[in-house]
Amino acid sequence: MTLLSIRNVSLHFGGVQALTGASFDVARGTLTGLIGPNGAGKTTLFNCISGLYRPTGGAIVFDGQPITGLAPDRITARGLIRTFQLARGFARMTVFDHLLLYGQHQPGESLLGALVGDRGAAEREAQLQEKAWAVARRLKLERIVDALPGNISGGQKKLLEIGRALMTDPQMLLLDEPMAGVNPTLVNEIGDHLLALQQEGLTILLIEHDMPLIRRLCDEVIVMADGAFMARGDFDQVAADSRVQEAYLGVVRA
Ligand SMILES: Nc1ncnc2c1ncn2[C@@H]1O[C@H](COP(=O)(O)OP(=O)(O)O)[C@@H](O)[C@H]1O
Ligand SMILES: [Mg+2]
């Protein structure tokens, strides 16, 4: 039932204790919200889960296997991926090429290519193209596949970031504020895509500040504060929790 397990994960940057022993589980097939005041450690935890940072202590277990300290591409190969903002350096690559690039990062690919030779490579290229089309259609990006990222809307960029992640065939997707800077109509559209992906079996952990959206999308909400787990439940339960209210107010007052 549990797909991702965060067990007493800690991390400090010099004197700053960004994670102070965070622990919680995420069940397979859920769309779970991860909320908490600014500085709570949400992004830092995502960086630990995805292999960007090595935790100072604790363990991260995915699909029954420890992944603590593995390199990001190894974690991706196991089916866990987070989205990243489109890098400026790739401004000359089309939307379609961005999708293809992520699809190429498959485990064992170069070995397979060496073994089966050119015919195999051509076949894989055709499969990759088909997969990129499927993802583009899936996210309604098929009409802009030839566009450059600089010429698409903020919402389409967010969808492309999600699309790239889908190209790696993930079991679980980590999203860090995917709606930031997106207009309200598209926010709802992206939300609908996330619900549809969940229905297809994807597990999603979503950091988001838009509380009405969290309430609409999420089965369950996990609250972090001061680098650790604070509360969980459905949205109305955690919103009514006085400790959660205080954690948010403390930041506003500070
Ligand atoms: N690279 C870093 N170097 C030093 N301190 C950091 C770094 N990244 C995050 N922090 C600190 O860690 C704490 C948690 O930050 P963060 O994970 O970004 O919180 P959230 O995403 O919940 O807003 C904050 O006090 C932040 O200032
Ligand atoms: Mg953050």
From TrEMBL:
Source taxon at top rank: Bacteria
Keywords for this protein: ATP-binding, Cell membrane, Membrane, Nucleotide-binding, Transport
Record InterPro entries: AAA+_ATPase (IPR003593), ABC_AA/LPS_Transport (IPR051120), ABC_transporter-like_ATP-bd (IPR003439), ABC_transporter-like_CS (IPR017871), P-loop_NTPase (IPR027417)
Keyword Transport belongs to the record: yes
Gene Ontology cellular component terms for the protein in this record: plasma membrane
UniProt cross-references to SMART domains, sorted A to Z: AAA
A Pfam family it matches: ABC_tran
Residue ranges of every copy of the ABC transporter domain listed in the record: 4-251
CDD domains: ABC_Mj1267_LivG_branched
Molecular functions (GO terms): ATP binding; ATP hydrolysis activity
Name listed for the protein in its UniProt record: Amino acid/amide ABC transporter ATP-binding protein 1 (HAAT family)
